[in-house]
Amino acid sequence: MGYIAPRHGWRLAAACAMVWSFLSAAPAAAEAYPSKPIRIIVPSSPSSGPDIIARLTGSVLTEAWGQQVVADNRAGAAGNIGGELAARAAADGYTLLAASSQQISGPLYNDRAGYHLLRDFTPICLTASTPYVLSVHPAVAATSVKELIALSKARPGTLQFGSSGTGGGPHLAAELMRLMSGFDFMNVPYKAAVFALIDVAGGQVQWTFTVLPAVLPMMKIGKVRALAVTSRKRTPLAPELEAIGETIPGYEAIGWYGLVAPAKTPAAIVTQLNAEIIKALKRPEVIEKIRVLGADPIGGSPKEFTAFMSEQIETTRKIMDAAGLRGK
């Protein structure tokens, strides 16, 4: 019996060592993220707002972690191609989605969309927001929002609006004007906002909504006349432009950019991503790069981003229902 006891003691010691090794390794494994490259799926074309913000976010995370964070453009079907691809990805933090208002309006407009922004994704951070700019061709007899509304009512259905696509953010901003003021127009959808702006400058359509950096060069050479911004207040980037809300009380329509992950992504990874992005959004050089896009850095917690998206979904649903744009 004197031989058996030490043998059992050796086995017990070995078992304890194995348990301790497992328990010690678990936190280390969790802390290892990221241990390989991260992909941010961008459901729009290169050089679009979501693409630029996603690449800026990726460069910041690459610098912080020493792992490549790359943008993967998957444009098409009003953002649904990229959205569906990201929704089906593994919930391990290595595939993220550059989300914008397109990921709200796309599934609401198309019942066949294979994802829902809140059901199929975990919010990480609201990165930035941007107003749209209302611009008209110089030949349009309106120098203010009030005059443009009056012109549209005098000539119902004749003011052609160049949109970035039916159900997209700029189109919904125009539909909100219609609902709140009786403004009248004909929607002419384009594949991208820049093409609509080019045709406004050329006189093929009369007006459009687009982001400020795209409008500024054409404003300076007199190709288009900018009238107003869609944010609740005037933007410091172009304080001479009125806010549409000054003419239509309560009006506000903004574009926004954020980062989400597939549903059930571990909370520790979401927290780590959020903390690093928040840190970056406080850096002067990052703030400057975002403001060059005509946007403002936001930040905030995943919970705050969830509340924001819930509000945006409800507002968008109301606009689309009133405009007859649901379930095409």
List the helices and strands and how they pair.
Blueprint: H1 4-31, E1 38-42, H2 49-65, E2 69-73, H3 80-87, E3 95-100, H4 102-109, E4 121-136, H5 145-154, E5 160-163, H6 169-181, E6 186-189, H7 193-202, E7 207-211, H8 212-220, E8 225-229, E9 242-243, E10 254-262, H9 267-280, H10 284-292, E11 296-297, H11 302-323
Helix pairs in contact: 2-9, 4-11, 6-11
Question: What distinguishing features does this structure have?
Answer:
single chain, 328 residues, alpha/beta, D-Maltodextrin-Binding Protein, domain 2, 45% helix
Walkthrough of the structure:
With 328 residues, this protein is of the alpha/beta class. The chain has helices at residues 4-31, 49-65, 80-87, 102-109, 145-154, 169-181, 193-202, 212-220, 267-280, 284-292, 302-323; strands at residues 38-42, 69-73, 95-100, 121-136, 160-163, 186-189, 207-211, 225-229, 242-243, 254-262, 296-297. The protein folds into two domains: 38-130 and 255-323, Bordetella uptake gene, domain 1 (D-Maltodextrin-Binding Protein, domain 2); 131-246, Periplasmic binding protein-like II (D-Maltodextrin-Binding Protein, domain 2, 3-Layer(aba) Sandwich). Mean pLDDT is 88; it is low at 1-8, 12-16 and 22-30.
